[in-house]
Amino acid sequence: AVLGAAAHRSAAKLAEGLDSFDEELRVQCACALAGMGKAGARYEDQVFALMDDPQPIVAAACYSLGSMAEATESPVPAIATRVAERVKDKHPAVRGAAIGGLGKMGEEAAAHIEDIARCLNDSVSYVRTQAVEAIVGCGELGQMFAGEVCRLTFDAEPRVRIAALGALPRLGERGAAFAEEVAALMDDQSPEVRAACAKALGDFRTVDGAYYLPALTQLAQNDEHKVVRDAARAAASALRALEDRAGDA
To answer: What's the helix, strand, coil split of the chain in %, to 5?
Structure first.
């Protein structure tokens, strides 16, 4: 109770900064409220009022509104619609923040999934990564775009490939259908991508794990990067456990 009261006091103090003439302070306060769960979400209306502010503040507001909706599990349709409008903003930082915020709004995000999906083709890699995560946030409807997400596993930017690899196992059977394409990235030049590839294979729950075990075992033994070896070892262990459970059934 003491900690809860302290959180509410801190949130109230931060909310005061949302009216500051200092733009940087408004950005910092909006972002800080985003990380305060339900205590910060009490000031959703004040953050929403920032949506008419200059670009950096709008980006912070979109991010914060998404986090607040996630914390309360009660996204407001009018807020979601306003955030969705910013998905088409000319500033990449705003587009990315709007997509990221919208992706945390559950069913309200799904109502704007076509706008989100278009951003999978954005010219800016940050925006593409946010769009991938937002597609996952759209739940079952997002699974319809598993093919578009899979295409991004071959994106020129490693961080986009990593985001897509992390998303596919969360896109149900439609995502798991691209296990073969995912496995091809065990030879990627980026160790972070190879590690993400191994983790994705271990996270799939509808693939024939035995098929990928030899390659994962080899990766776990021979890759020069520890992060890759560890990820491959964990994935192989997960697939063996899955195979054992299937044999016991």
So the answer is: 80, 0, 20
